[in-house]
């Protein structure tokens, strides 16, 4: 209960920091849903970098954003065909 | 050739029209030739905020559709030489003007004026597209509220998509007393989140209400804090380096005000 929390010296967060935290979270979602183009660009760049280390199946590659209530994750599924010998 | 600045926000009621009136009047008061264009067709208000509502004959739609010459529709301000208003039409809707017509209009206005200040309607639909079509730079207005900052973020994204990169930010209606108590986001918090450059901070000020009651932009009121804030904003637009005052009188805000959050971009 609130009163015990206060007695134990735990300060309630200011309403400003609550607002900021909520805003950060909501913007992660807002921004994630704004542009499929950005995701496509990101995928192309990732493939370019990875291709110099290993042979990958570009057509089988999937890059998506998965979101739940508290976070957003970038999920990439990239089938590897062959790893280059160094 | 002048510069076209669009003043936008996404959310309604954060002070776009007041900002337009004061930025325009502020620039004119330091000797610039300025025209303000109200693109909020159907919900025009810049005329009343400027106290010029009785002088309207022609409007933006008349100009766009060729019913009159551009010069005929420009209303001269009663206080400042070199300040004009092009009012919106009140009886039409946003589709009465096209982005192409706006682009052409802006091009013509920049030949005559140092600054073309465009008052953008709230929202992200046709009115926004019209208002941004001919713009060179964008100014985003927000208040320190979660809803306004969220919408500002969305608008910044849309501005970038419209090739209007690096907009600057006006934080309106800041209440230093609430910031001090930790009950309102400060400028730093908002810049942190939006990652844009700050153009100015306008404190909550009763003088704003009084000045719009009278139809006299607060920037001309030498005794008001909001007026001072807008005078500084006008000077910064012309390139003068004036540090942005945190109304909390806190250090650490000044300097490079662009910062990025972990999740950003």
Largest inter-chain interface? A-B, 17 and 20 residues
Q: Could you say which overall geometry of chain B the principal axes of the C-alpha atoms support?
A: globular
Q: Any idea what the CATH architecture of chain B is?
A: 3-Layer(aba) Sandwich
- Could you describe the largest sheet of chain B, including whether it forms a barrel? 8 strands, mixed
* Helical content class of chain B: 25-40%
CATH top level label of chain B: Alpha Beta
Compressed to H and E, one letter per element, the order of chain A equals: HHHEEEE
CA radius of gyration of chain A is 21 Å
Shape assignment of chain A: elongated
Whole-number radius of gyration of chain B? Answer: 17 Å
Q: Name the beta content range of chain A.
A: 15-25%
The CATH superfamily of chain B appears as: P-loop containing nucleotide triphosphate hydrolases
> Mean pLDDT of chain A, nearest integer?
79
Going by helix content, strand content and strand pairing, the class of chain A is alpha+beta
CATH-defined topology of chain B = Rossmann fold
- Portion of residues in helices of chain A? 40-55%
The largest β sheet of chain A comes out as: 2 strands, antiparallel
Properties at a glance:
heterodimer, A: 86 residues, alpha+beta, two-stranded antiparallel ribbon, two-stranded antiparallel sheet, 3 helices, 22% strand, B: 265 residues, alpha/beta, Rossmann fold, eight-stranded mixed beta sheet, 11 helices, 8 strands, globular, disordered C terminus
